[in-house]
């Protein structure tokens, strides 16, 4: 076996295609990652990264996620103090239940 072969899946945290973008009913873009959604908060032009925060922060949730210009997750705090939000998809729009 070549040394570059792994016998396990890559760590999920670094799998870029786990990040998806969804449109909420209000036309706002949300980032969805591992069942949780995040609101766009800040674009770091120097690093070309974007900070997204959990909407639950108003209730004290500290979760956030940082992606680079290729939508690759580079950093973040993925621990939430609440269960994932429940969405239904209607005509390509996500509606929070
Ligand atoms: Zn949260």
Automatic annotation (TrEMBL):
One Gene Ontology term of the molecular function aspect:
zinc ion binding
Q: Where is the FLYWCH-type domain?
A: 21-82
Keywords for this entry?
Metal-binding, Zinc, Zinc-finger
Q: Which Pfam families match?
A: FLYWCH (PF04500)
- Family matches, as InterPro entries: Znf_FLYWCH (IPR007588)
Q: Which domain of life is it from?
A: Eukaryota
Q: Name the chain's protein.
A: FLYWCH-type domain-containing protein
Q: Which gene encodes it?
A: HaOG203951
């Amino acid at each position: 076996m070549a040394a570059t072969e792994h016998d396990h899946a890559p760590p999920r945290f670094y799998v870029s295609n786990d990040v998806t973008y969804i449109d909420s009913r209000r036309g706002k873009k949300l980032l969805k990652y591992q069942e949780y959604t995040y609101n766009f908060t800040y674009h770091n032009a120097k690093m070309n990264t974007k900070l997204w925060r959990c909407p639950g922060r108003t209730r004290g949730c500290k979760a956030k996620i940082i992606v680079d210009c290729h939508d690759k997750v580079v950093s973040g705090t993925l621990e939430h103090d609440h269960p994932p939000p429940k969405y239904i998809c209607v005509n390509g729009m996500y509606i929070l239940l």
